[in-house]
Predict the 3D structure of the following.
Amino acid sequence: MMAPPARASTLDLIGNTPLVLLKGPSQAAGCEIWGKCEFANPGGSVKDRAALGIVRDAEARGELAPGGTIVEGTAGNTGIGLALVANALGYRTIIVMPDNQSAEKMATLRALGAELVLVPPTKYSDANHFVHASRRLAEDTPGAIWANQFDNTANRKTHIETTAAELWDQMDGRISGFTCAAGTGGTLAGVGMGLKERDETVRIALTDPHGAALYSYYATGELQSEGTSVAEGIGQGRITGNLEGAPIDTQFRVSDAEGLEWVARLLREEGLCLGLSSGINVAGAVMLGRELGSEARVATILCDTGFRYLSTLYDAAWLRAKGLPVFDWLREG
């Protein structure tokens, strides 16, 4: 077995993540289900890719000068990725985040040296939404850029160029379908576009949590939401710049309980400690696999590590307070 190549820069550690066959999901789907291990990125999530792509794009366009500042509104993971990239390149970071995200994300951002600004969670139409707050902060900060991950298509471009290309090579060009949830839409759109460039028959599916409006949009053409979800970083109520023109062939809606079932199984049966977005993605991959049949090979994104949610998903009291099932091993008595 060959060792991974040596890297000339810590930024070269972003991407080229492993791909793993998921046994339980494969058995449930009746075909091969593969997970792209994005938790293996330096910042612990798939968002490292978007962070690096956005920063390099801003540098190339001359918008980000040496010693400058990167401002972004994020559920946390993109901020963590931006802080690490910024540290490696000599920039400051200011991160605006809803105050209902996990304590682990907040502590991580502070530990990385980012300036953290917390705001109450609210609808995108509200002027105080974290995205709008971060834009105003960037405008008011000398030498700053606004990363704008939701509408900055440098986000999906990096997934076209890296994530899709890696999946194609790792699966030897034999991939039947791909699915994941959408927050910014960069991963879903970028991987979808990149795979379709190589094989138009690859089926691209949205897996949407409850409380988001994209399932309805791709099914009926109308943005309508139903229910709620505690999943962080996924779920969208509008067509972002990154989602415009995304080649979505079909769509699934997955509940938090279904996603948590896969989070529990992947931990207990396969030794993977993941966040809820990964569980929702795997549930969608199983649905897609069942549609495509026994010869199918379906890939999805294992977005981030479960260690980022020890105070939420892996805490019995928190789960009970949210009306969610508690993992067997967390139950008292």
Remarks:
- The CA atoms of residues 234 and 294 lie 29 Å apart.
- The chain has a mean pLDDT of 96.
- Strands lie at 19-21, 32-37, 69-73, 92-98, 115-119, 144-146, 177-180, 203-209, 250-254, 297-302.
